[in-house]
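chain below, 73 aa
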Amino acid sequence: MNQYAFQLQISPDQYLDYYRGAVKAVVVRCSNGQTLQFPASFLQRFVTREGIQGSFVLVCDDNHKCVELKRVG
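prediction:
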């Protein structure tokens, strides 16, 4: 399993583009410098009134299929 750590700060207004489907993928820079892209739908359970903020880890299998997104810290 591969794990990718990154920080997110998405305001409620910015998330509306993801929610409405105008933006389908999120692109982030991981703490190791890699660029990572994953479906925006993975973020839905982390949305609060303040948007989405915090440290996250995306876990992928050996075929690079996303298995789990979790908030850490």
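The radius of gyration is 12 Å. The mean pLDDT is 91.
thats it, cya
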